Amino acid sequence: MTIAAGFRFADGILLCADTQISYGGIEKVSGTKILPYEFKNGSKVVFTFSGTVNYAKGGIKQCVRAISKLPAVSREDLENAICDSLNVYFQKLVYTHPHYQQAGGPDFFLVIGLWSPKDGLGLYETLDATVTEITEREKFAITGIGGTLGRYLAGPMMGHSGYSMPDISTISTHVLSEVMANVVGCGKGAEFVVLTNEGAFGPIVGYGNSHVEDVFAAFQQSINMAFLELCDLSFPGDERIIERLDALRMLVISCRQQMLREKEKHRGLEHLMEILTDWKVRRID
Known about the structure:
- Helix 1 packs across helix 2, helix 3 runs antiparallel to helix 4 and helix 5 packs antiparallel against helix 6.
- This protein has a six-stranded mixed β-sheet with strand order 9-8-7-6-5-13. A five-stranded antiparallel β-sheet has the order 10-1-2-11-12.
- The protein starts with a strand and ends with a strand.
- It is built from seven helices and 13 strands.
- The longest helix has 27 residues.
- It is an alpha+beta fold.
């Protein structure tokens, strides 16, 4: 049970997922669902997934083996290698499983970032062995038990795919936090990795997202109260709605100041996060 997602933005793509790994629907442990790779042929690939963990990791392993055998590649070459690998894998191990498309079965779904030195970056999702590109018009892909709520939340916020890094980190953090808080089965921790248009892996540093959940809760409560005041016509004057809007303005200023203080506190984390991201990338010869 999980949520995994990829978002297009101005400088690249952001992939994120919760950090709860379930085995057999019973054992639940903390673990990563984001797997970045760097290949000798110059390509960069990052996978995240939902579904049965062992089958998903097995399918990704087959894709990695196929990509590692390619010479200089385009994104189409990468896409074809993944599609062919998944087709063989599903035919052999997934479609023949007695619990295919049943609870606890071998089904899994991938969200993938592909970067080629020939033609740059793309975001993709899978349905069984079918690999589909997520265009600038579609903007994001979300999979897992939290996918329905995630798409509902992300849709209005993702008005375009040209957001900055701070904006996309805020949007993705909000979507994941709300899903993890409201969908039973999603883990409570989250991880984020960026693959840039230039083919570099990077983290989302702490100050970019740690504040979002608490700030949104306070902001949403204040907005709800202002909405109620706006619709309450039993008071003909404007004094109460003006008071409510003033309170909202003070909340926004206070939250902004607090976030700036937190940003200063977390400056030292940026280098550490870069080191950890570099350590996480698997380099395939």
